Amino acid sequence: MTILLTMLALAKTLDLETRLLIVDDDPGIRELTAGFLSAHGYIVDTAADGTTMRRALATENYALVVLDVMMPGEDGLTILRSLDRATSPAVIILSVIGEEVDRIVGLEMGADDYVAKPANPRELLARIRSVLRRKESGTPTSVRPGAREYLRFAGWRLDAVGRQLLDPENVVINLSDGEFRLLIAFVEHPRRVLTRDQLLEISRGMNAEQFDRAIDVQVSRLRRKLLRDGDESELVRTVRNEGYMFTADVERR
């Protein structure tokens, strides 16, 4: 009896009743991802395209779909657009590193999260667990149009999904891709010294070697854009022999 109760408790811990669907045209990725997630206690089905996916959704009750964006024929964003987000499972989209437009459009269309390809299996597992926890608790998991969440600091507002930075006078500040990625890295790690290597790791969605060579230039440009007339404080401060620090407190709302 004790062994049986232990097995039942373990089954509950592993979420054996939670069913996931992996949608990817690459059979190798489908197999590897499904095997990894199955080993962590999930029931996992796979689909190679939108047609197979819809057939699966009609016959099974899925908690979450992992959906690749870049597929021949009907791509992932087209499939996502066709779903009824009020009744469909949670969706995590996969897109090649650097395809920023895919990420933004996917989140705007109701995806619950985004993971860059090639996806680290442990990161994907962590994102799945996070989305499912939020779903179970009733916390909204995606950004709703017209209800954007801003990262706010020192009177500034950063819309991470829309890639828009507004200064304290509500003026839109144009940022290059490198400047935007740097700012995201800073506001997600406020009041912490970040080395060049850490900034490179956090911002690696762009070409790593090119970014590494130009990181000090990018920081300098970003710092100038964050400096307002009459403002003597620097939001990005150089820490000698260590790196850079974002000096403002940051809140999400």
Task: Give an overview of the whole structure.
- The protein has 2 domains: 11-137, Rossmann fold (3-Layer(aba) Sandwich); 151-252, Arc Repressor Mutant, subunit A.
- Helix content is 41%, strand content 20%.
- The protein has 9 helices and 13 strands.
- Helix 7 (177-187) crosses helix 9 and helix 8 (196-202) crosses helix 9.
- The longest helix has 18 residues, at 208-225.
In short:
The chain is of the alpha/beta class and 253 residues long. Helix content is 41%, strand content 20%.
What secondary-structure arrangement, pairings included, does this model have?
Blueprint: H1 2-13, E1 19-23, H2 27-39, E2 43-47, H3 50-59, E3 64-68, H4 76-82, E4 90-96, H5 100-108, E5 113-117, H6 121-137, E6 151-153, E7 156-159, E8 164-166, E9 172-173, H7 177-187, E10 193-194, H8 196-202, H9 208-225, E11 236-239, E12 243-246, E13 251-252
Parallel strand pairs: 1-2, 1-3, 3-4, 4-5
Antiparallel strand pairs: 6-7, 6-13, 7-8, 8-9, 10-12, 11-12
Helix pairs in contact: 7-9, 8-9
- Give the number of DSSP strands: 13
Low-confidence stretches: 1-15, 141-147, 205-212
Category from helices, strands and their pairing: alpha/beta
Mean pLDDT: 80
- Sum up the overall morphology in one term: elongated
Annotation keywords:
2 domains; disordered N terminus; Arc Repressor Mutant, subunit A; 253 residues; Rossmann fold; alpha/beta; 5-stranded parallel beta sheet
